[in-house]
Amino acid sequence: MKKFAIFGNPVEHSKSPLMHNSAFRAVGFDGEYFKILLEDGKKLRKVFFANNLSGANITVPHKEAAYKASDYLDDFARKVGAVNTLVLKNGKLWGYNTDAPGFLRSIKKFDNIHSILILGAGGTAKAVAPLLKEEGFLVTITNRSAPKLEEFKKQGFSTFTWDELEKDSFDLIVNMTSAGLKDNNLPAPKKLLKRLFAKAKGVVDIIYGKETPFLALARQFDLTRMDGSEMLIQQGVLAFDYFTNHQYDLKVVEEAMRKGLEESK
Ligand code: NDP
Fold first, then answer.
1. What is the pTM of this model?
2. How do the domains of the chain map onto residue ranges?
3. Is residue 56 in contact with ligand 1, taking CB distance under 6 Å?
4. Tell me, what DSSP letter sits at residue 47?
5. What is the spatial distance between Cα 82 and Cα 147, in angstroms, rounded to a whole number?
6. In the CATH hierarchy, which fold is given to the domain comprising 2-97+229-263?
């Protein structure tokens, strides 16, 4: 039996074992997937090998540590500097990032989206924004403070702090901050969000498992709303594809992961 795990701190809340174990059963792969609480990111490699793992997912705060722990990086992971999927091949660790392509797959259900406003300039935004741009979306980033915007500016993105943001017409508004995760904060001032929601077609919050204040506010508008569980599933499907060497029908994998997640509710 092949062993897989998710590393994080905290990790207790993670739904990844439910999704991956459900998919292993669905395709008949002899695997098991569990959680590993990792406090020190520098020990990632050691713990990976000590547990005799064949692959792993990595969540907050160890995605940079996983990048450093990789023997080889795929081009995209190298570009964004963060790894959320590790795969053991011939004794070496290969690092991938499935967060950004997972997010891209998750927004496929929205029609006619051209311009996207990302709220937040953290690690996830850093991975997702370049891929959206590559795919032809017009991407704007806004953040509560200026420092993290610098890197985006260098890459040619339009960046604004909240008070600098004058344009208010974007097709899709995405909360990529951690506001609302463990608190009841909105990711930007209410007045600004209302102005944005009035002209948008859809909103996405990548936080999952609860209705955040951001999504609750959007309920007052005629908008398509989506939480982070779709991104969670899609990044998981792509990670599973790497774990199992691209041999299964991803529609079957997706369905099983969705079922695993549903059963946990
Ligand atoms: P980071 O810690 O790297 O970045 C956090 C960002 O949020 C920063 O831009 C920060 O702004 C901003 N921020 C934090 N608190 C507030 C607040 N109260 N008001 C406004 N802005 C705030 O986080 P990550 O990019 O790693 O993760 C972001 C979120 O995405 C998390 O909630 C995480 O759980 C979720 N996530 C979901 C995934 C999924 O599969 N659904 C996958 C990956 C992440 P500043 O620069 O001013 O500090």
1. 0.94
2. 2-97+229-263, 101-226
3. no
4. H
5. 19
6. Rossmann fold (3.40.50)
Residue 228 Cα: closest atom of ligand 1 = 41
Quick one: 84 exposed, middle or buried, by C-beta within 10 A (0-12, 13-18, 19+)?
Answer: buried
Q: Residue 68 is inside which H or E element, if any?
A: helix 63-69
Backbone φ and ψ for 59, nearest 5 degrees, come out as -120, -175
Closest ligand 1 atom to residue 120 Cα is: 9
Q: Would you state the pLDDT for residue 265?
A: 73
What is the number of residues in the chain? 265
**Ligand 1 pocket member 14 (CB < 6 A):** no
* Phi, psi of 97, rounded to the nearest 5 degrees: -125, 110
**């999504």: which residue's tokens?**
215
Average pLDDT, the chain: 96
Q: Give 196 Cα–ligand 1 centroid separation in angstroms.
A: 19
Instruction: Give the pLDDT band (50/70/90) at residue 243.
Output: very high
φ, ψ at 206 (rounded to 5°)? -80, 0
Tell me if 2-97+229-263 shares its fold with 101-226: yes
Span 127-162, pLDDT tens digits: 999 999 999 999 999 999 999 999 999 999 999 999
17, 6 Cβ separation under 8 angstroms:
yes
- For domain 101-226, give the CATH superfamily: NAD(P)-binding Rossmann-like Domain (3.40.50.720)
H or E element: which one contains 90? none
